[in-house]
Specification:
The structure is a homodimer of 345-residue chains. Chain A folds into 3 domains: 8-51, lambda repressor-like DNA-binding domains (434 Repressor (Amino-terminal Domain)); 65-167 and 299-325, Response regulator (Rossmann fold); 170-297, Response regulator (Rossmann fold, 3-Layer(aba) Sandwich). In chain A, 43% of the residues lie in helices and 15% in strands. Chain A has 13 helices and 12 strands. Chain A has helices spanning 8-15, 19-26, 34-47, 53-60, 74-78, 82-95, 109-121, 138-146, 170-182, 198-213, 228-239, 253-265, 299-314, and strands spanning 65-71, 100-106, 127-130, 149-153, 164-167, 188-192, 220-223, 247-250, 275-277, 294-296, 322-324, 328-330. The first copy, chain A, has a 6-stranded parallel beta sheet, sandwiched between helices. Chain A has a 4-stranded parallel beta sheet with strand order 7-6-8-9, sandwiched between helices. In chain A, helix 10 (198-213) links the parallel strand 6 and strand 7 (220-223). In chain A, helix 1 packs across helix 3 (34-47) and helix 11 crosses helix 12 (253-265). Chains A and B meet through helix 4, helix 5, helix 6, strand 2 and helix 7 of A and helix 4, helix 5, helix 6, strand 2 and helix 7 of B. Strand 2 (100-106) of chain A pairs antiparallel with strand 2 of chain B, so a sheet runs across the interface. The first copy, chain A, binds a DNA duplex (16 and 16 nucleotides) through residues 5, 7-9, 17-21, 23-24, 27, 29, 31-33, 36, 51-61, 123.
Chain lengths: 345, 345
DNA sequence: CTGAAAGCGCTTACAG
DNA sequence: CTGAAAGCGCTTACAG
């Protein structure tokens, strides 16, 4: 409407003060007479002035933005429930400070590294989220050398000096195993994510140790890439074998959903002949038939905490590792009493 | 490693030229001797110089970034397959120019407006994507007054002066209806999205007109908010009524999946007693049992084209409306011959 | 073809 | 408590 964009100089002129003073008033810096500050603020808002974040970013040497790079195949991403939920939590944390999320989707590890590098070296972001941390993750060293702030989302394998925000999942793993144990399941199978992802191997280890505690037989374990397709393949392998497990624990919901589909297709009744559990935050688990027993992860809160930690780190505050709310076992229809040995075979 | 960040001045000094010339060389502007340009480029890359995008943004008066604001409940978003796929397409288009996507997730219409406004008024983005366009959408007027570039993703109801990128879905609607018609379905029900969303009512209209063409009986129509939960409720309403339809067409995959779950739970066999179809891009439709007949929308390509149009608009190029690839009917197991009237009821 | 300088809109020491 | 000025790292007319 008005023509050109309003600047701090316009506000200053109208208030009869210097631009520096306007800046001080706007940013709540000390050394501005209270009534002068009020007046400046009133004028600025009256004129509808908004800061130019490009200018602010340049003079502060800060982007006031954070980067998230997602390394996923588009098809797999379409069924992924973690990132959308995680992002909504991130958003809630950063938007209240007027900061912003820069999102990038890449489909190769090289591009991923390149994107992290570019985003930080060109000053696009002040810090990044590191998800899907791998064994000896090259990104950790990269970020260190780039001197960028990062928050590790999950469980890194090194005593990283960087802030770490994880989610408490040990309790849920115990509960899930206890649940199946109480239902007389002795022959479990685990469908885990790729071994090189730390949260994938951690998941397996949590389940294994919970089983060991109860003296349960060592389960069969199949590795996947977390996609529904690979979950299907793993399920085939397990169910088409001569002696199939009585329960399959999947490391995420989309694989569990695919597995459920295959079981039913094979004429195996869930849960009377086979129990199935998922893990994650997908809304769809509740609408499947049978509805899926799963472990509900509060990814939104995780995102909120991760973003908060990252902002603190950028501000130079020391960071103690933070842990998001305990994931909770949600028992639904897909798990039930194990079929008795006689009936099977 | 090296200490402070390299600037264009460092490159200029090393090359023995002015910073202006370095800038010209870097940006491929005319008026730099070819060999000087080569030398400057070599030195810059040799030193590992990267542009500071904050500075570039300020001096160009461009953010070199685009905004996408998603208005969704986090739980619903967890099962949404459109945005992740769409975003991957957007990314592919903008990243090759070093541009970036600013993503925002909000959960109210007021916040949505506020976010669009802030993003553009503070110079965070050069343009925005407008998805989920509504009847008399207030965002259209807002963007107009803000003088921001926008690309409308879908079908606006006004002869907007802004670029529009839609997806060709008419053919698929015809095919879907023809498919069911050929299977002797005469009693259809539509589970559509919220009426005030233009693509939701457009979807209904496409289906209706395809049915009309074939002289089919007017279907029952239930409105939802596109969530799996609302899809479930709609399904209950349809299936628990005395006289249920022989086929239900859902406006998106997540509702279809929820509907499929409910049908099976009610002991209704799909597809022998009830046919079901989805619409969208969810990978999960292929792993359900029965697998879902759906219309595959290439959201990634749609995102690519939308981003391309937006960048062109920002660059000042005139825009003809663009249309993404035809969506295609994917026939799977959930649709089959209609039960004969005698067998039913 | 090249240089010197102003400018983008903020922030932040430095004086007073 | 307030002002005048330099600076952030680029880009871009303007001269020559």
């Amino acid at each position: 409407m008005t023509g050109r964009k309003l600047t701090i100089a316009d506000v200053a002129k109208r208030a009869g003060v210097s631009t520096g003073l306007v800046s001080f008033a706007l940013n709540g810096k000390p050394g501005v007479a209270p009534e002068t500050r009020e007046r400046i603020l009133a004028i600025a808002s009256d004129m509808g002035w908004q800061p130019d974040m490009r200018a602010r970013a340049l003079s502060k040497g800060r982007a006031l933005a954070y980067g998230l790079v997602i390394h996923r195949d588009p098809a797999v991403l379409s069924a992924d429930s973690f990132f959308p939920t995680f992002i909504s939590g991130v958003e809630r944390a950063i938007s209240q400070r007027g900061h912003v999320l820069v999102l990038s989707v890449v489909d190769s590890a090289e591009q991923e590294i390149e994107t992290y590098r570019t985003l930080t070296e060109t000053g696009r972001v002040d810090g990044v989220f590191l998800t899907d941390v791998r064994r000896n993750d090259p990104r950790l060293a990269l970020m260190e050398s780039l001197r960028t702030q990062v928050v590790v989302v999950g469980y890194p394998d090194t005593d990283a000096t960087m802030p770490v925000v994880s989610v408490a999942d040990d309790h849920a793993a115990q509960e899930l195993v206890a649940h199946l144990h109480a239902l007389n399941h002795t022959d479990l199978a685990l469908v885990m994510g790729p071994e090189h992802l730390l949260h994938a191997s951690r998941w397996r280890d949590l389940i294994l140790s919970a089983m060991q505690t109860r003296g349960m037989r060592v389960p069969r374990i199949v590795q996947t890439d977390f996609s529904a397709e690979s979950g299907l393949i793993a399920t085939k392998e397990l169910l088409d074998s001569g002696d199939r497990p009585t329960a399959i624990l999947y490391a995420n919901d989309q694989m569990a959903l695919a597995g459920l589909g295959y079981a039913r297709r094979s004429g195996i009744d869930v849960p009377s002949e086979l129990s199935i559990s998922g893990w994650g935050d997908s809304d769809l688990t509740r609408y499947a038939f049978p509805s899926l027993t799963t472990v509900a992860v509060d990814s939104a809160e995780w995102g909120f905490r991760a973003a908060t930690a990252l902002m603190r780190a950028v501000a130079g505050a020391p960071q103690a590792p933070d842990v998001a709310r305990q994931s909770i076992l949600t028992i639904r229809e897909s798990t039930a009493l194990a079929p008795t040995a006689g009936v099977r075979s």
